[in-house]
Amino acid sequence: MASASTIRAKVEDPVVGWTAAVGVALLALGLRLWRLGEPREFQFDETYYAKDAWSLANHGYVREYVDDANEQILAGTTDGLWASDPSMIVHPEVGKWLIALGERAFGMDPFGWRVSAAVVGALMVLVMCRLARRMTGSTMLGLVAGLLLSLDGLHFVLSRLALLDIFLAFFTLCGVTCIVADRDWYRARLARLAPSPVDGGWGPVRGLLWRPWLVGAGVCFGLAVGTKWTAAYPLAAFGLLVWAWSAGARRSAGVRWPVLRSAVVDGVPAFASLVLVALAVYVASWSGWLLHAAEYEEHLSSTQYTQFEAERPCKDGAEDNLDSSGARWPTAEEPDATGLGEPVQSLRSLWSYHRDVYTFHAHYLNCSEHDYASKPSGWLLINRPVGVAADTDIEPGTRGCDAPEGSDCLRQVLLIGTPVLWWGGILALAYAALMWVGARDWRFGVAVVGTASTWLPWLLYDDRPIFLFYLAVTLPFVVLALTLTMGKLIGGSRVATARRTAGVVVAGSFLVLVLLNFAWFWPIFTHELLTHGEWLDRIWFERWI
User: Fold this and answer.
1) Most Cβ neighbours (<10 Å): which of 10, 203, 504, 531?
2) What total of structural domains would you count in the chain?
3) What does the pLDDT look like over 141-173, one tens digit per residue?
4) Which residues pair with 465 in a beta bridge?
5) CB under 8 Å to 117, separation ≥6 — which residues?
């Protein structure tokens, strides 16, 4: 009979670990592909991103489109819908290029513009499995993390929509995964270069200048910022964490004044690997824009965003906040440059464009309202989900509705997290903060820093319409906090004790509750037909309506 240590060795075998993680990701992919093309309509902001992606793929830059473009696209027509003038988009282009890949592969229909999100959502589950496996040393806990992520409603629905947030969350998670891998690489490399305590000095320097995992993190964060600018917050936060980890490793190696010395010998190269690489990737992601800079200079160099008077953010209406001075970008008034001056001029135009977009995000929406807007202070509690599609007032006896007389049926797609997961995650995050500060367990610090850097910045913008699903990028860190907490409950020993048994029961019960909660909400994740009563059974609070 095999011993416990032998069984554990087989479970932790790299082939077994990777195979199991891929299996969980494939399960997640299958769930996300199921009836992906339904409902056959543009859901929520798909109306912008799906058409922008098609324009990028077919014209090289985002163009304006005719008023009835949605109806014609759903009828199977894509010709003659786009004008030659560029469109004033307010988010970078990486996510839209990925949406465009699905449209080129499967056509300009709901399945085509959603399939990239489904694939990326499944890949995100795979990365989550491997990150948790690296941080816990347990294949089982890695699989639990992947399952928790795949069973969250917010992640599930976003993986079935042509919105940008699933791509943002994926690239951010990949960047953090690379940073965690760099921590392991750096400490192992330092131990080889300095096998005994350093007797004064700076410690090894030259052998630690090139950190390949940090370069990989820079690429991933460049793609994340190239999807949405909000990725800059976790980039900055984890950059500081890299410095703190490097200083801690040097302290362990005997280096005196490790924080200051690490700032020079580790911080400067890390800044280049992370921030400068991310900046280069970000600029490269605007290649389509740069190649068509002349069109933007001609048509968009004098826009409502440029002319917005920031010092008077809200009067009677947004239109009253516009300045009619007619100022244009400097490059729009210059003759076209040639040679090396041409890309420089295009980059200057791109900078002016970014200034306009920043003005839009910072001020232009201050006067706006939205039915599904919510305060970020309540997001972790799921204060206000977002309805992205609804087919209501289906009469009994029609379209499969078997509601009793006097009632009706409906279909809905609701962007809402799995409540059990998020509410349990709040407790896990509180425990993570205690373990990071009190027990100085760096692993819990990843969950805390990730949550803080992706959620708390939104508190600065709670005077404009913002939405619960922006927490998609926070979700992996909530899952990580839950997984690490489960690991502590179970304990590291394989010996069967009362404590371990209780920990397994609690952790296993929580996982089962998340699964059951996800299954209960499945109809409002997937546009299933429900009677009005069945729908109300899933709308637990009035604010969810």
Assistant:
1) 203
2) 1
3) 999 999 999 999 999 999 999 999 999 999 999
4) none
5) 32, 99, 102, 158, 159, 160, 161, 162, 163, 166, 167
DSSP string covering 48-61: HHHHHHHHHHHHSS
Question: Helices 46-59 & 94-106, crossing angle to 10 degrees?
Answer: 80
**Mean pLDDT on 388-399:** 93
Question: 3-state SS string over 353-422?
Answer: HHHHHHHHHHHHCCCCCCCCCCCHHHHHHCCCCEEEEEEEEECCCCCCCCCCCCCCEEEEEEECCCHHHH
Cα–Cα distance, 517 to 522 (Å, whole number): 9
- Show the domain range for 121: 4-145
Beta bridge partners of 394: 409
Instruction: Please give the Cα distance from 413 to 392 (Å, whole number).
Output: 12
Given a contact cutoff of 8 angstroms between Cβ atoms, the answer to whether 361 and 228 are in contact is no
- The verdict on residue 53 lying in a domain is yes
Site of tokens 């005994």: 196
Residue whose pair of structure tokens reads 């729908």 in the numeric block: 535
- Give me the helix-helix angle, 110-136 and 14-33, nearest 10°: 150
Residue 33 located in a structural domain:
yes
Sign of CA dihedral 427, 433, 439, 442: positive
Predicted pLDDT at 1: 44
Does 227 fall in a domain? no
The CB density around residue 240, as the number of other CB atoms within 10 Å, is: 13
